[in-house]
User: What shape does this take?
Amino acid sequence: MKIPGSHLMDPSSCAGSENEAAKACQTPATRSPSVRVRIEGSVFTVDKALLEDNCEYFRALFQSGMRECQQEEIHLQVVSTRGFLVALQVIHGERPILNDDEIVQAIECAAFLQVQALVRHLINTVNSDNCLLMYHTAVTYGLLDLFKSAALFIRDMYQDLKEDARCLPKELIDHVESLVPSSYVMVGTHSPSIKLLQDFMRTVCYLDEDEKEWKVLTHLPLEASTTMAGVTVLDNKLYIVGGVYDVSNKVVDSGFCYDVVTETWSTFSNPQQLRYNCTLVGHEGSLYALGGEYKRTTMSSVERYNISKSTWSFTAHLPRPTSAVACTKSMGRIFICLWKPKDTTEIYEYHPGHDEWTLVTTLIRHQSYGHCMVSHRDRLYVMRNGPCDDFLRCMMDCYNLSTGQWTALSGHYENSKGALFTAVVRGDSVFTVNRRATVEYSIEDNKWRTKKEMTGFPRIGSMWTFLLRLPKKSREPLGKADLTSGQNFEVPSDLPPSSSVECYD
Assistant: This one.
């Protein structure tokens, strides 16, 4: 295994030439001050500040004032060499794909040395192959965040994992079964309404997979607009930014947030630069408003909303002005899909720590550009239109982040269901929806296989789809009356102020 920043290790101090860790030591150069860490017969010379910044164990040790904090060599007996190597990789920004043994040793190291970056990496790599192992090992070593994430992942795929989950202790199975799975949720394009002329179609709806039909989750506040808005989910809350009133493209005064637990709406400030037709993405406690338009001018500016501080600030601009940019997150990383004539689709990654965009790869397809992008494990799936003579034919290409290779998926995804330009991944499945059908696909190596077809969403216009974990509650289906007069909705005559709007079914 190649160790990042190999200059951090002194090969003369590595014991045992047969040891893989020793083989990884390449150069004697180190940063000062440094400390030697001895594990299982191998000695690593590591930058002291690096350990203090990333490991709670070393931070407490170096600041304790005890004799050990002055030692030039520290002997660790509670972690393995392999686990420590993985921790060093992650600290240096690498994202290693781990086998089962490495997962166990990495969890052990993350727990004993309290390496939060390693915990985040493990959370970002939970998948159907390792979730049961991560779940059981995380509870064994007391990594609560990883335990929670693995449990929720298992719950979302429980029907597929139920047989394999029998190997778990009963209390762990009971915990998974007590959790609420994520639901497929959709909101269409709606402009603000007024009390006297309420539009009862202004609803956020979710798919009841047992009954295979759409039901109403909540109504949009009167002042909210999803027309040309940015819509995303972060920490199980729905956020809307940058909607417009009408064809004048006047931006709505506030952003809106829906909390599914309290079933309430609240408002928050707009970005400093008013924008519509932007893309909104949530990541690690912040919202990012990407590009968009204002006064018919396309922008490249990006703003970050710190939710805990309720403040907007500018970050690095997009590589070029764009609106409604396709965006996805993969393994805790943010990616966007840009067009660059002729016939070129570019994938960029945003690095929050360095506040910069970097080009990842390009895809060249004749008269065809990416419109939608989703991720599954370490793969990005770009849905694109067909050639100009068949624009609604949806083709798909897959980019593997680990190998750096593109693969064209077999077949195309339109037929009677319409073009696939909105999609959400849950576990090993993809959900898509249009007026004719809601389709669940199973993600396979070289194609998406139709797994289940359900009722479509019988409205026209753009749709935003996402996942939310909804509290258990009996809700009414989306009936015909809801699409016309709306007489079946029990909406109170007087709604509270928009800063705290109760939403009724």
Q: What stands out?
A: The radius of gyration is 25 Å.
